[in-house]
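Exercise 7. Given the encoded structure of a 261-residue chain, write a plausible sequence.
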């Protein structure tokens, strides 16, 4: 993977998001996965230990190649803290070794990672400063509308599997345009769209990973941050992030909780 990319992988349960991650990152040689559901144990080294030990193992990698999956705690507040620290660990591992790291965050629509208007502080740091690591971020979620707008607007490549729920199609239309939502509603299982907003490009891909069509995307709203957000980005401060995990969880309403699982 080239460096400092943000890739978002979204779509219905069981349609191939984690499989896409495995197929595309299996040869990445500095890979860290926040493995919420333990989906990547079979092709990584799973760090089945507590967070401090996970962090010290990551810090000890230096310039080595590694492919580590960190199972996340069940408890929401502990999960928020784990994601925060793992993002920072990925950043430090890249920066100190001067060697890029790819961080995968599975289930990014869980409220410990992101909600429609809140981003985990560690993830926010990677969005703002990840290019200095450099760190690539790959995030997955079932519902794009339940992921922070800041994250979706900063995402360079969207991998979009089928979505049928009208509410979530509306969220896709709102963030990536009507054409993306319409095409997403027609996708078969394991087929996906690759959308590159900066190039106004939408590509259809089949279950074997073969490109089947490509078009210029008619309308893409990349949701430019407001002037306040731009200012926050420059100063490194953000009202969007909460001072501690507990407040983050209590103050935000997670849209994903209201949806089917
Ligand atoms: N392109 C594909 N061709 C054949 N089988 C696939 C393909 N993609 C995924 N699968 C299989 O489908 C099943 C579900 O895929 P996967 O776990 O990637 O779904 P998911 O979108 O991550 O689901 P969830 O939202 O529950 O995490 C897995 O058994 C996987 O091996
Ligand atoms: Mg999955």
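Solution.
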């Amino acid at each position: 993977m080239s460096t400092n990319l943000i890739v978002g992988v979204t779509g219905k349960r069981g349609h191939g998001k984690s499989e896409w991650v495995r197929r595309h990152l299996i040869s990445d040689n500095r890979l860290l996965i926040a493995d919420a559901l333990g989906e990547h144990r079979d092709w990584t080294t799973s760090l089945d230990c507590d967070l401090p030990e996970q962090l010290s193992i990551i810090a000890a990698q230096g310039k080595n190649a590694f492919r580590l999956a960190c199972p996340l705690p069940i408890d929401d507040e502990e999960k928020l803290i784990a994601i925060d620290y793992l993002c920072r660990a990925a950043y430090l591992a890249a920066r100190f070794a001067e060697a890029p790291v790819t961080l995968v965050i599975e289930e990014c629509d869980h409220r410990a990672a992101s909600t429609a208007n809140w981003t985990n502080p560690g993830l926010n740091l990677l969005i703002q400063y990840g290019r200095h690591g450099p760190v690539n971020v790959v995030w997955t979620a079932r519902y794009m509308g339940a992921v922070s707008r800041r994250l979706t607007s900063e995402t360079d490549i969207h991998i979009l599997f089928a979505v049928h729920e009208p509410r979530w199609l509306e969220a896709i239309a709102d963030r990536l345009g009507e054409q993306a939502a319409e095409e997403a509603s027609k996708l078969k299982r394991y087929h996906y769209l690759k959308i590159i907003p900066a190039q106004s490009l939408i590509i259809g891909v089949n279950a074997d990973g073969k490109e089947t069509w490509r078009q210029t995307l008619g309308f893409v709203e990349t949701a430019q941050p407001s002037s306040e957000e731009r200012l926050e980005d420059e100063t490194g401060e953000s009202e969007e992030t909460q001072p501690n995990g507990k407040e983050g969880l209590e103050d935000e309403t997670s849209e994903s909780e209201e949806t089917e699982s």
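Remark. The longest strand covers residues 135-141. Students should compare their own answers with the one above.
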